[in-house]
Structures are given as structure tokens and as C-alpha cells.
Amino acid sequence: MKSNLSYVHPNVTSPWGTYLSQVDRVLPYLGHLARWSETLKRPKRALIVDVPIEMDDGRIAHFEGYRVQHNLSRGPGKGGVRFHPDVTLEEVMALSAWMTVKCAAVNLPYGGAKGGIRVDPKLLSQKELEKVTRRYTSEIGVIIGPQQDIPAPDVNTNAQVMAWMMDTYSMNTGTTSTGVVTGKPIHLGGSLGRVKATGRGVFVTGREAARRLGMDLQGARVAVQGFGNVGSIAAELLAEAGARIVAVQDHTGTIYNPQGLDLAQLIPHARQNGVAGFRGGERIGDEDFWDLKTDILIPAALEGQITAARAQRIQARLVLEGANGPTVPEADDILASRGVLVVPDVICNAGGVTVSYFEWVQDFSSFFWDEDEINQRLDRIMVNALNQIWDTSDKHRITLRTATFAVACERILTAREERGLYP
Ligand SMILES: NC(=O)C1=CN([C@@H]2O[C@H](COP(=O)(O)OP(=O)(O)OC[C@H]3O[C@@H](n4cnc5c(N)ncnc54)[C@H](O)[C@@H]3O)[C@@H](O)[C@H]2O)C=CC1
Ligand SMILES: O=C(O)CCC(=O)C(=O)O
């Protein structure tokens, strides 16, 4: 891991450090394209913005916002916006870089970008949240647009936030620009299937990986960390396929039921209160989550959750990375040496951006598809991408993560080489 950038100081477990180490691992498989690899280690553009708003009590509060466009070689930037009190520039850089790799892995005509505001939205009123969103959108308005960079939901953002972003951008440009963001409400140019798309993609890649491992989903024990958009939908679809969701952890705590949690009751409960306090399971210590006897583990919260120490304890045979960057490099090695198969974030959670792409295409053509068509196309794209990654993994005897980087980085750097360097 090496960064020649003066403005970040990554370490081996920070998100940008993790990403750099993942790039280093793919270099031997890039052939002559490796000479362009420094491109992958530098974001093309990073914008830091001040977001001042008047709070409900009359105070003026300032929040720090970011939008990073990591790479635009294959198309406009694409990637979500995160509202979280711990967001940093370095984290957004890593998240934007993983978007570059992810979009190329499923062969979408996009580069990678990501945004964030360092704010705890739970401490804001709805009015304050709207003001923060609108001011942030105006500030990053100089670099986003339907052909430049298209934001979408991520942690703590949703269709309502996307509606405000679309409206602010449209007001500032004097257009109705539905294509400037994806993940919008359906009647504002949103796509059927987008809300569930990331969780569905986790399910599809998990189904395929389980088949290859000879693991029956019927009765398989599943533990899920993070029970928001991605984790709850992945759990729901796995349960529909016969799996038992035995443990769920979110920021409020961890609950466990070896017979399987009742998701029809848990999901609405968690939406209101978090999972803690749910009566259909036993409350266990958060750290005990990592020792549970399960077949499938789904990290679907934040980065850096699977540390080296936790990787030694994980009992599952299959890890489905719903979250971005949940596994640090040393933990990756430990899981591989213990025979635990990891379906990496850059393919596992690519269902969301794939349906975002469908939304963007539908917005341009003003012709909307039905949900079955969307889900079928999503399934096909994910399965084809995973098959190619699996073949690459078998050919070079490398992990699925390095294989995904190999497939994606070849596409990214080929585009870079074909476009050339001169203005
Ligand atoms: N929403 C999307 O379409 C996509 C999201 N992702 C990734 O999936 C992950 C989750 O995103 P969403 O479900 O959209 O967010 P969300 O905001 O809907 O849910 C986040 C969940 O993580 C939990 N959480 C937060 N901190 C935690 C902690 N310290 N320990 C345990 N749980 C914790 C929260 O309680 C919540 O249940 C993130 O890594 C995100 O980048 C990846 C691809 C697309
Ligand atoms: O839907 C999108 O455009 C991006 C989703 C996202 O932020 C991600 O895949 O991490």
C-alpha cells in the first residue's frame, strides 16, 4: 500500500488504505495495462464544500460535504451520497473508487463517484434535513449533471433526499432534470425495483455462490450485520428462498434466534426502533455476533467491520459483502486461508447501481419498464458478470475480489489507454 497523495494518510485498515492494497494485488494480472495503474490510485477530482444552514432554533450550523469523482474514463461519474457523522474525504475517496471498479465489473457505461455530508441526520428535523440536502446539491452542482455525475442513495439517504436533490438541481439549471440522480420516487422518474435492487443483487450472487459451493439455501443459517435498505432486503429474499435468518445486528444491538427470526415482524420494528427490543429473539452482545454458527454472513453496514481478529472467529462458509469495504486486507487473507468464500462488495452489491443505470436510461427515453423486466435484466447482468469473474478466479487461482478487480481494471485501463492522455 502506497499513496503519493499529500492530502490523505491512509493506514492498512482505513478505507482508502484497503482500496490501495486491493489495487496492488491486481497489478500482476493486468499485463501491459499495469503501466496505467497509478490512474487507479488517484481520484480525478475531489470537491469539499461548506454547507451552512439555519437550524430550527435560529442558529447557523455548518456541515462539511464532499463529492469525489474517482474515474470518468468509461462514462459519467456514478455513486451514492452518504449522510453520517463520521464521513471523511478519505472515506468518500475509497467509496468512489469502489464505484469505479463496481460499474466496470458489471460493464455499466459509468465511471465512479461518491458523495457525503458529515452530519448525523437523526439529530436534524425534516426541515433541516431538506435544507442541508438542498444546499449541498447547489454546492456540488458545479460538477454533477445527467451526463457528468449522477448521485444516488447510500447510508441514511433515500428517495425523498433524491427528490430534493433533483428539484434543487432542476431549479438551478432551469430544466426538469430527472436524470441527475437515481433512486428517486417512482412518480418523479424513479424506477420500479430500485429500492430492493441492492439487496436483490446480494441475493442473486449469494444464490449462485451457494450453488457452486453445493450449499442448499433451504434451511441455511444466515447472520446479517446492518438491517437497513441492503441488509433487510437481502435477508427477506434469502428467507423467501428457505434460509433461516438467525441473527441480525444494527447500530442499536444484536438479536439472535436459532429457529429463525420472523422478518414480517422484525422489519417494521427495526424501521421504527432498530432491532434492539425485538421480542422475537434473544438479545446478545454485539461482539458475540462474530462467533455464531452460521452458513452465510452478510456484512451490510459500514466499512472495516471484518477485522483480522473477527475473521479468525467467523463460522460461516460464505460471506456476501452487501456493505462497501467491510473486510480489511489481512482479514481477506485469513478468510481465504480458512476456506471461507467471500463474494466481494464490488460485485455482490452491484445490483443497486445496475438498476440505477436502468432508471437513468428510462429517464432519458421517458419509457418505463415493468418490475418483472427490471428484475430479470438485473438477474441476468449479475449472473453473467459473476460467471466471468469466477472464470478469471479459476484461471489465475485468485480470490473473487482480485478476480473482480482484474476484470474491472482491464476495462477501466483499456478505456484510459484508448482515450489517451492529451487534452
Ligand atoms: N443503498 C444502496 O443502494 C447501496 C448501499 N451499499 C452499501 O450497503 C451498506 C448499507 O447501506 P444501506 O443499507 O443503504 O444503509 P441504511 O442507512 O439503509 O442502513 C444502514 C444499516 O447499518 C446499521 N449500522 C450502522 N452502523 C452500524 C454499526 N456500527 N454496527 C452495526 N450496524 C450498523 C444501521 O443501523 C442500519 O441498519 C453501506 O456500506 C452502503 O455503502 C452498497 C451498494 C448500494
Ligand atoms: O445506485 C447508485 O448509483 C450507486 C449506489 C452506491 O452508492 C453503491 O453501489 O455503493
Structure description:
Keywords: Oxidoreductase. By secondary structure, the chain is an alpha/beta fold. Helix content is 43%, strand content 17%. Among the domains are: 45-177, Rossmann fold; 195-348, Rossmann fold. The chain contains 13 helices and twelve strands. The strands form two sheets. Strands 9-8-7-6-10-11-12 form a seven-stranded mixed beta sheet, with helices on both faces. A five-stranded mixed beta sheet has the order 1-2-4-3-5. β11 (318-320), α9 and β12 form a beta-alpha-beta unit. α2 crosses α13 (400-419), α5 crosses α6 (229-240) and α12 (371-396) crosses α13. The radius of gyration is 20 Å and the shape is globular.
Helices and strands in order, then pairings?
Elements: H1 15-26, E1 45-54, E2 60-71, E3 77-84, H2 89-105, E4 112-118, H3 126-140, E5 149-153, H4 159-173, H5 194-213, E6 221-225, H6 229-240, E7 244-250, E8 253-256, H7 263-273, E9 282-284, E10 296-299, H8 308-313, E11 318-320, H9 329-337, E12 341-343, H10 345-348, H11 351-365, H12 371-396, H13 400-419
Parallel strand pairs: 3-4, 3-5, 6-7, 6-10, 10-11, 11-12
Antiparallel strand pairs: 1-2, 2-4, 7-8, 8-9
Helix pairs in contact: 1-2, 1-13, 2-13, 3-4, 5-6, 5-11, 5-12, 11-12, 12-13
Bound molecules: 1,4-dihydronicotinamide adenine dinucleotide and 2-oxoglutaric acid.
